[in-house]
Amino acid sequence: MKNFSRLTLYHKILLLALSMLALLGILLGLLLWNSLYDLTGQQLDQRGMEVTRHIASLSADHVLTDSRYSLHELISETRKNNTDVSYVVVQDAKQGVLAHTFSQGVPRGLMQANPGIGSSVSIVRLNTSEGMVRDILAPIEQGEVGYVRVGLLEDPMRGQIAAHLRNLILATLAVCLLAALLAANLASRIASPITQLALSADQISRGQLNVQVPARSHDEVGLLAKAFGQMAQSLSRTNVERDRLLTELARKERLRKVLLNKVLSAQEDERKRISRELHDETGQALTSLLVSMRMLADRTTDAQQREILLGARDLAANTLRDIRDLAVELRPPVLDDLGLLPAVRKYLTQFEQRHGILVSFTAIDGRVHGPTAMALYRILQEGLTNIIRHADAQSVEITIDIRENHIELIISDDGKGFIVKSLDHTRKDNRLGLYGMRERAALLGGTLTISSAPQKGTVITVVVPNPREE
């Protein structure tokens, strides 16, 4: 059965057709053999009775006149004229032998093999040295005068049957051969379109959607081929439309990145401008105000007024310090002057002092400037802001690994963590801090991954290409 399943459809159909033809031929041969065998047996019995009765009718007078010479002439002539007659024996009413055609006497036991009863014809099949013989015993004058026993050979008639059967078998084989050729042609007509469909399906699976599937007939296979061709054309049109949409989507994605880069660049430029104005103009104005208030406090003689002026001066000094911190946070000058690592160290020192969270910083020395440094600095700022807002952490570990081909930033905390899949809900709630970090990394051609679980803390890993200076 396994070997049958490995055959092609053509060979399966052909094998089934040949098997059915062979089975039909065998059954037909057996049926014909049995039918001819039975018919031949009936014909032999009929012929034997005719010969025996003919001899009985001719030998009655010879038996009554006891003319044994005439009886011998009669049975000898009968045996000579009928080649299928093996022997003839004439008996009297008491089963005594009056004449026979045996050259060496009547074989022992022949009379007992078919003793005969009354006036009816008795037929017994005997196995002799000449083959199967039908021993036919017929009475003469109802058995009152005697009996005639004739041995009729079966082989001549069987030989004729075998010859006819051989001719029939040859004719059957010829018909089976013709039927096999027709079955092979039919199998080819059925299997060829299906094989073509299989080849076309294989070509389509490899992306060759312009394949043509010919429909050579109007039967079910032809309808299947037509439907298959229509499906291939539909897939081709769908792929063309898909490619067009993908091209348009890629174009819009490139445009989105360009616009996002411009937005972030404009944002950084605006932060730089505001930082400079806060540091220069607002800072200088507050410094002048502090000097003026100090001078007024030194000149006044009223202790109450002096206390008020000194309190206002301290408030202005605190405001000046906060403005300067804000200006640095908006655009740290050290980031432009010294690069990423010094800016991060300074920011982490201020972060630890301001929020009371233990910060561990590990970095491999290297210089990172430009957009990459700014993006990583902003990602770090946003990550630490999220820790303050949501993590309830006691310590933070920051690692910056500057390699030849890439830069890796790792932000790890021991906070309460969260289920990463819940980020979809935070996005719906417009809490876009993590998504902004991911967008910044993607704009640099990098990735941002998040690993977290409830009460297990959070690890944010950012990997971006290292823009090595030529």
TrEMBL record:
GO CC terms of this entry: plasma membrane
Organism, scientific name: Anaerosporomusa subterranea
Segments traversing the membrane: 13-33, 167-187
Major site of localization recorded for this protein: membrane
The organism's taxonomic lineage, starting at the top: Bacteria, Bacillati, Bacillota, Negativicutes, Acetonemataceae
Places the protein is found: Cell membrane
SMART domains associated with the record: HAMP (SM00304), HATPase_c (SM00387)
First-tier enzyme category under EC: transferase
Origin: domain of life: Bacteria
Protein's recorded name: histidine kinase
Gene Ontology molecular-function annotations: ATP binding; phosphorelay sensor kinase activity; protein dimerization activity
